[in-house]
């Protein structure tokens, strides 16, 4: 798979997440947070199970215990982010939640430097800040007084960022993205169920009432969305993946306008333009620089000055 196709998969994941944000929020009226997480990821596991079996049959070599431990660790990161986001949305406004979740865009390159001294391509920094500014404008250009729920969602953004980083550092090496997804979904489902059984009371009728939202969040947002993320990240860097995935805010605004009749203000349109510009720049600028470097290397030595730069007038 090419780098460009991988980014298309990440964009598609962002589109699915943007569409499913409302479903995730409205389901909270019927289902408690940890039960929602449990059912969501059990449905996601069922969604990818046939694909994981097929992937295992076609694999050239089996997975090691170290691979499974890595998958389990990534599952813990995913569960921590999903749980903090779901609990935080009980007291956080949709506006605040949308912006604060998007903080992972800038956290990915920052944490990559602090944890592994892994410096991204220079274009990532301005693109990440541009995408974050776009998310901020889409969210209304302001934050209400921060609640406990808001701070929980900030914590969620930290775990989203760590999950993106470790998929690149652990999951990609195995060459088994579907099995990675199956394991992390099962980890989230089991942990969510255990916490729910000890701290929540959920009735069957409330689960049935939130059935459509749970199916969408489980099958599409999780089963399809996170799987597209894992597959796409095999062929791109974590900081670039974070910027492409931040398109969820852009698609949430677009779907809200098309399906719910919501109108984008001038401020929102500027936010959309900033996110779109960041995604285009993080894809095209490194590509153009590499192309220019290859062209310079292919020039005859006689066409270059002593410094090695191309002489004027060529």
TrEMBL record:
Keyword Lipoprotein part of the UniProt annotation: no
Signal peptide, first to last residue: none
Protein name: DMT family transporter
PANTHER family: EAMA DOMAIN-CONTAINING PROTEIN, OS03G0707200 PROTEIN-RELATED
Lineage of source species: Bacteria, Pseudomonadati, Pseudomonadota, Alphaproteobacteria, Hyphomicrobiales
Start and end residues of each EamA domain: 6-139, 148-281
Record-linked Pfam families: EamA
Keyword Transmembrane helix belongs to the record: yes
GO cellular component: plasma membrane
Record field: transmembrane: 37-56, 68-85, 97-116, 123-139, 151-171, 178-198, 204-228, 240-260, 266-285
Annotated region (Disordered), positions in chain: 295-314
Membrane topology of this protein: Multi-pass membrane protein
Compartment annotation: Cell membrane
Keywords: Cell membrane, Membrane, Transmembrane, Transmembrane helix
Taxonomy, superkingdom: Bacteria
Main location: membrane
């Amino acid at each position: 798979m090419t780098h460009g196709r991988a980014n298309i998969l990440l964009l598609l994941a962002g589109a699915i997440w943007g569409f499913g944000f409302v479903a995730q929020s409205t389901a909270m009226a019927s289902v408690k947070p940890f039960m929602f997480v449990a059912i969501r990821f059990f449905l996601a596991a069922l969604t990818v199970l046939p694909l994981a079996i097929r992937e295992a049959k076609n694999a050239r070599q089996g997975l090691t215990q170290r691979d499974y431990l890595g998958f389990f660790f990534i599952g813990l990161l995913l569960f921590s982010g999903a749980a903090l986001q779901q609990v935080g949305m009980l007291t956080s406004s949709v506006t605040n939640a949308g912006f604060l979740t998007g903080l992972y865009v800038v956290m990915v390159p920052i944490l990559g430097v602090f944890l592994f001294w892994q410096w991204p391509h220079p274009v990532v920094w301005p693109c990440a800040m541009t995408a974050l500014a776009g998310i901020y404008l889409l969210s209304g250009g302001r934050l209400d007084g921060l609640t406990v729920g808001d701070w929980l969602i900030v914590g969620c953004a930290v775990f989203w960022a760590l999950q993106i980083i470790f998929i690149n550092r652990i999951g990609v090496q195995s060459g088994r993205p579907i099995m990675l997804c199956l394991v992390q979904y099962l980890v989230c489902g089991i942990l969510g169920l255990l916490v729910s059984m000890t701290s929540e009371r959920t009735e069957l009728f409330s689960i049935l009432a939130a059935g459509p939202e749970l199916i969408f969040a489980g099958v599409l947002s999780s089963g399809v969305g996170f799987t597209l993320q894992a597959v796409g990240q095999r062929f791109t860097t974590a900081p670039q993946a974070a910027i492409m995935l931040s398109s969820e805010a852009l698609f949430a605004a677009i779907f809200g306008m098309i399906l719910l009749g919501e109108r984008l203000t001038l401020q929102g349109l500027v936010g959309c333009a900033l996110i779109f510009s960041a995604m285009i720049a993080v894809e095209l600028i490194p590509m153009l620089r590499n192309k220019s470097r290859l062209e310079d290397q292919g020039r005859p030595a006689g066409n270059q000055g002593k410094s090695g730069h191309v002489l004027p007038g060529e």
